[in-house]
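Appendix B, example 12.
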Amino acid sequence: MISTPICDFVRRYAEGRPARLHMPGHKGRGPLGFERLDITEIDGADNLYAPEGIIAESEANASRLFGARTFYSAEGSSLAIRAMLALALPPRSSGERPVVLAGRNAHRAFLSAAALLDFDVEWLHPAPGDAYHSCTVAPEQVDAALARLGGRCATVYLTSPDYLGHLADIAAIAAACRRHGVPLLVDNAHGAYLRFLSPSLHPMDLGADMCCDSAHKTLPAVTGAAYLHLRRGLPVEDRRVKEMLALFGSSSPSYLILQSLDACNPCLEDLPGLLADFLPKLEALKRRLAGLGWILVGDEPMKLTLAARASGLTGDDIARRLMDAGVYCEFHDPDFVTLMATPWNDDADLRRLEAVLADLARPKSVGENIDGAVRPSLPREAAPAYRAPRTAMTVREAAFAPRETLPARECAGRVLAAPALSCPPCVPIAVCGEVIDESVLQRLRYYGIETCDVVK
């Protein structure tokens, strides 16, 4: 049985009814009920950024479970992304600006890292017809880009799974990176559970050098719980990893989140069996929905993503109908609805989802009401085709430049100062430093973004 040293320490401390003459100010008492378990770095509680006791033991447990060198983040994958990019970049002694080859569907945390670390980005753009938040990168694409960059590339950075549930061919891409002597970093925020499939589909088992997982997205952990994984044998000292996490992280990490990560470890021992029981149920649901005429996209096992347009409804329409029935999706836009299920959803959750989608799939005449909303005969216009914008400034230059906020319709020809995005998916439609052209304006209108921050 895997130990839970952080949880055990905090419970013993709370049960001792101590006089808390330390932070936090609630002193273990408060209206939320969990304050008694909320502590800070008192004697015996260890230090997340220089662990020698209970946190070191808990991270060692997680490392064994993931088969990697695993470090905790109490600030989500966003912290892990900044730290692993800092670890991957070479020293700047030569004065040459490092280049990161990155899939365009990167989370905004990648852009904040580019602004803070001041590296250049060479984008791998979506294929024609791809959604902006999806970027299925082929191994040949990476290989060709690395050959073209001719040794200037410091690292390759990919997001897999993406928000719609597409999985990149990490094994083949990792092989291409090794041929060129370049490390591969993966934002695996949506795929922590992939390690516990048989066979594993986790990036660290497929050849990645570093990756982040958001434990809270697919595992039984609270929001903000995440991991940074390094390949065993990677010549980076643990101390250096902790230094980079501390550089970007709070000096007061949440012990509630750390306890959640600690308590998650025993659950991970049982996860292979839970997945073996749950995934066939989810796959059977997907088959039944496909039989009703729903078009599903993506190949990630635990995501269920509907291509809404084929149904005659927008994704936003479907999400509203689901919400009316008490079913809340992860993400929706005009074209897609993404639903994230885990073994901690019970059969009743899946039945409720299926009932709503079965009703929506029932043939209806044009103008017939669906719970008070008129069903349109067709969704609005198709999403504008993606075209790569022109870059006028580096991400750092644009992010720190004087700016003004304007209606998007008035921004033609201006340089974007902050990423244009909605959350979720927190993937930029346009990136800091890019020129807002007519193609960008069309996408902003389509996705309902009405204002932009532009460089003065």
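The chain has three domains: 5-96+166-268, 302-374, 395-455. The longest strand covers residues 153-159.
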